[in-house]
Amino acid sequence: MKRFEQFDAQGYLSPKWHWAAFFMTLPWLLYRKRYMDAIVYSVAGWSFIQLNITLVLLAFEFVAMSYVPEAYQMGVRVGIALVIWVFWAAMVARWTDAYYYRMARREIADAINDYPRDMAQQEAHLRREGGVSTVGLGLGFGFFAFVLMVIYGQFLPIFALKKEREVLFDAYNVTQSAQSRVALIYEQTGRCPTNLPLGTDLQKVRMHITQEVAGVAATDCAVVATVREVQFPIRYLNGKTMVFYHQPSTGNWRCISSLNKKQTPKRCLAN
């Protein structure tokens, strides 16, 4: 009513600020019984926002993402999406009071026009069209909870599996390359080069050379690789190991891993 009085006094609509519409536009629309507007906002509004996010992300991906360090790329993508989403949420929040004022004036005009001499019917019309709906509010939050469950249960695992395969593929290749170097030195000198530096500053795996490996009885040289510094949603890979070890009795190099059977590279399983 304070906002409505301001609009009446100034004689025109102007942007204000509405926190509920900023943080939870859909539940607010349902709470205010604006069911059709809520459907339009959900279909057209969200589609428009998502289209903007997609176009900006695609443009940034081709133009500038190659200049962003890999560790920050996902954060940049999320940041871009949030900036666009916050911008449109702010636009909605600024004009929500004006929208509701016009809606209220329209409903009042309809009530007077439909029941010009029946105050009871006018009041019944306004009670039906105005006021609030706790059921609608619950539906709004229930919808958000459902969307989060779908994202967490369906889409996040698909994305995580892709990232997991990328990290493990790179880790295996890096470790195998290091093992080839160690094997060559071992063959030439007959000694395990435990002091050989293995540079992996730009890789998501830390490697070291040792003559003893827990769980491996017969070895005199091994390359141990440990996955590190991977981010959500595959943080569970941090600390997982991949070991290439030498068997003195056969002269062969074999591989073991703390990864489960599905995660372990097939070439490591074959060893």
TrEMBL record:
<feature type="transmembrane region" description="Helical">
    <location>
        <begin position="43"/>
        <end position="68"/>
    </location>
</feature>
<keyword id="KW-0812">Transmembrane</keyword>
<keyword id="KW-0472">Membrane</keyword>
<dbReference type="Pfam" id="PF00114">
    <property type="entry name" value="Pilin"/>
</dbReference>
<protein>
    <recommendedName>
        <fullName>DUF2628 domain-containing protein</fullName>
    </recommendedName>
</protein>
<dbReference type="InterPro" id="IPR001082">
    <property type="entry name" value="Pilin"/>
</dbReference>
<feature type="transmembrane region" description="Helical">
    <location>
        <begin position="135"/>
        <end position="155"/>
    </location>
</feature>
<feature type="transmembrane region" description="Helical">
    <location>
        <begin position="74"/>
        <end position="96"/>
    </location>
</feature>
<keyword id="KW-1133">Transmembrane helix</keyword>
